[in-house]
Design a protein that fits this description.
six-stranded parallel beta sheet; globular; pyruvate-formate lyase- activating enzyme; alpha/beta; single chain; 2 domains
Length: 286
Amino acid sequence: MTDGLGATDMRAVTQLDYSDYPVERHRHLHHIFPGNGADHLKLGAEVEFARGCPYSCTFCNKTLFRNKYRERNLSEVIAEVDQLLARGVDYIYFIDEIFGVGKQVRQLLEALAQRPVSIGFQTRIDLWSEESIDLLGRAHCVSFECGIESITDEGRHALNKNCKIDTDRITEILLYARTKIPWVQANLIKTAEDDPALVAAWQANLKARGVWVSEPVPMFPFPGSPEYVTTFGAAPDEGAWERAHDYYLHLFAAKGFSDVQDQRPRSLAELEAPNETFAEAVCVSC
C-alpha cells in the first residue's frame, strides 16, 4: 500500500477498528498538564490525520522516515473520531508530524466543532491567523504547541525554518491564540544568532501573558536530519546514534542542557554497558 515512492498511500488508510482496543485504560492525555484548563477531560486517544512534513528544517530527522506530506481521506478520519467518541473518548491528540498544513484541515476542524471532543497537536505558528485560530477555538482546541525555534529572522534562517512571518507577528499570533486556547506553548532551540538576554525578555513577556515558552534546547544532530550530514559530512551508518550522542554531550557539557534535561547525562556506551551489580544478583539467585 505505497504510492510508488516507498511511502504509505495515506488515502488508502481506512478507519482503524477500535472495537477490541481497551480505550478505557488509556487515561494518558497527550500534552495535557495539570492546571492548563483541560482538567475536566477524562479519556484520551491519538489519531493520525496526515503523515510527513513539507518543510526541511535542519534539526528534524523526518527525512529518512516521514518526509513526504500525505493526508488521509477526511471521511475516514471523522469516522475514526466518531468511533472513539462512542467509546467515551473526550480528548484527541493528532500525532501528525505537523498539523495544519493540508487542504482539508479547515473541513476537519469544522467537523470537530460539531462534536463533543477536545483536541491538541503540534504545529508551526506561521500556518495560523486570527481567523483560523478562532476556528480552533470553536473546534475545542485545548493544547497548541508551536516550534518557534528562534526569536530572530537570522536564527530561523540558519535552521532553514522557511518561516513566512517575523518575530513581532509570531508574538501577536501566540498571544491571540492564548485568548482562545487554554494551553499555548512555544518551543525554542539554542542558536548562535539569538542574544540570551533578548530571549529571556521575550520569554518573560509571553509567560506573563499566559503563553508557556521553553528554555532554548541544545540542538541534537539526529541521524537522518540535515544537521547530521552537515556536522559529520556523511549519511548515517551503524554508529550514527553513538556518534551524534557523544558529539552532543561534549558540545553542551560546558554550555548547559535544557531545563528539563539531566545536567550530567551519561553516554550511550555507559547506558548500554552490562549492569554488573544486577548480573551478580541474578547469578546468586540462580
